[in-house]
Specification:
Oligomer: single chain
Strand order of the largest sheet: 3-2-4-1-5-6-7
Distance between the termini: 23 Å
Strand content: 5-15%
Shape: globular
Number of helices: 12
Radius of gyration: 20 Å
Helix content: 40-55%
Structural class: alpha/beta
Bound molecules: guanosine-5'-diphosphate, magnesium ion
Order of helices and strands: HHHHEHEEHEEHEHEHHHH
Number of domains: 3
C-alpha cells in the first residue's frame, strides 16, 4: 500500500522511538494525536497502542505532574524556574499547557501572562499548548493522549491547567502528583479546602514569596487548615520565581518525594479505566451505557481487561461490547 509522504513517520516507527526514550519523536507524535481526520484518528490509535504499558513492559517511566491554579498566580513563571532546575538535574521535560482561551473567549482574562522560558535549541525540553476541549468534568482526550505518548520519552511531563476549586481535580486523571498553586492574599484555595469543595492536593505551592508577609501568612493559614483536616503530611511550600528564585530546588525535591511514595501503577490504571468510561459515555451517550448493563457492569467489563491496555483500546472494548461505532 502506498502512503502519503507528507504524513511523516508512521505510528509503529514513532512508537518505537518513544519507547526507546527518544524525545525528538515527540513533535511528530503530538501532531499525529492532534490529527482529527478519519485516517489521522486511526494512526493516533495505533500510536497510542504502541506506547501502552503492555508494549512498554510496565508503566511509562516519566513523573507526570499536574500543576494547577488560577490565572496570574505564577504557574508559567514557576515552570520556567522548574524547567531550569530539572535540566540542571539532567531530567528531560515536557510541558503541556492547557490553553483555557480555547474554552472562554479571548485571552484578556489572563491579564499579563508570562511565557514558559526555555532554550529552544535544547531537545530535552518540549513546551506545547493544548486545547482545553469541551469535555465537562475532565481533561480533554487530546491532553490525556499527549501525556500517554510523551511519558515514555521524557523524565518529567507537566500538565499546566487553569482552575480553582473543583476543576483542580481534572488533572488527577493523568497526574502521578498534583500540585495546586496558590496566590498569596487570595483566600480561595483555603476556603475551598475548608469547605471540602476541593480535595486536598498532593502538594500546595504558595507563589510570590518575595511579596513577604502576605506570602508567609498564606503558607501558615494553609498549613493550619491542612492540620485541621488531618492532612499533616501534605507539604506546603513557598516559592519565588522572579530572580533570584527561591524554593525551587525544595519544590523539585518535594515532587520527587511524592512520586517515590505514590502507587503510580494503581493510580494510572484507575485513571485509564475512568477515562475510557467517560470517553465512551460522552461519545455514545447514556443509552449506550445502558446497553452494557449500566455503569457498574461497564466498570466490571473494564476491570476484566488486560491492565496494560491504553485508554483508547479500553474505550474500543466498551464500544465493541455495546456494539456502537466510534464516530469521526
Ligand atoms: N512578585 C512576583 N511576581 C511573580 C512571581 N511569579 C510570577 N509573577 C508575576 O505574576 C504574573 C502572572 O504570572 P504567570 O506566570 O503568567 O502566571 P500564570 O497565569 O499562573 O501562568 C506575571 O506578571 C508575573 O511576572 C513571583 O514569584 N513574584
Ligand atoms: Mg500561564
Amino acid at each position: 500500500m502506498s502512503r502519503p509522504a507528507a504524513r511523516g513517520p508512521q505510528p509503529a516507527e514513532l512508537g518505537a522511538r518513544l519507547r526507546e526514550g527518544d524525545p525528538s519523536a515527540a513533535p511528530a507524535a503530538l501532531n499525529a494525536i492532534e490529527d482529527r481526520s478519519p485516517g489521522g484518528r486511526e494512526r493516533a490509535a495505533e500510536l497510542l497502542a504502541e506506547v501502552s504499558p503492555a508494549k512498554l513492559g510496565g508503566e511509562a517511566s516519566a513523573h507526570v505532574i499536574g500543576l494547577t491554579g488560577p490565572p496570574g498566580v505564577g504557574k508559567s513563571s514557576l515552570l520556567s524556574a522548574l524547567v531550569k532546575e530539572w535540566r540542571e538535574r539532567e531530567r528531560s521535560v515536557a510541558v503541556l499547557a492547557v490553553d483555557p482561551s480555547s474554552k472562554r473567549s479571548g485571552g484578556s482574562l489572563l491579564g499579563d501572562r508570562a511565557r514558559i522560558e526555555h532554550d529552544p535549541r535544547d531537545h530535552g525540553v518540549l513546551i506545547r499548548s493544548t486545547a482545553a476541549g469541551t469535555r465537562l468534568g475532565g481533561l480533554a482526550a487530546p491532553t490525556r493522549e499527549a501525556v500517554e505518548a510523551l511519558a515514555p520519552a521524557f523524565d518529567v511531563v507537566v500538565v499546566e491547567t487553569v482552575g480553582v476549586g473543583q476543576s483542580e481535580t481534572d488533572v488527577e486523571e493523568v497526574a502521578d502528583t498534583v500540585a495546586v498553586v496558590v496566590q498569596p492574599g487570595s483566600g480561595d484555595t483555603l476556603q475551598f479546602l475548608k469547605a471540602g469543595i476541593m480535595e486536598v492536593p498532593d502538594i500546595l505551592v504558595v507563589t510570590k514569596a518575595d511579596l513577604g508577609d502576605i506570602a508567609l501568612r498564606a503558607r501558615r493559614d494553609l498549613s493550619a487548615a491542612l492540620r485541621a483536616l488531618g492532612s499533616r503530611e501534605t507539604p506546603v511550600l513557598s516559592v519565588s520565581s522572579l530572580p533570584p528564585p527561591s524554593g525551587i530546588a525544595e519544590l523539585a525535591d518535594a515532587l520527587e518525594e511524592h512520586r517515590a511514595r505514590a502507587d503510580v501503577g494503581a493510580r494510572r490504571l484507575r485513571a485509564r479505566r475512568l477515562a475510557a468510561l467517560a470517553d465512551f459515555t460522552i461519545e455514545h451517550g447514556e443509552e449506550a451505557l445502558r446497553r452494557l448493563g449500566g455503569r457498574r457492569a461497564a466498570e466490571r467489563l473494564l476491570a476484566g481487561q488486560d491492565p496494560g491496555l491504553d485508554t483508547r483500546t479500553l474505550t474500543r472494548a466498551l464500544e465493541e461490547a455495546a456494539q456502537v461505532r466510534s464516530g469521526a
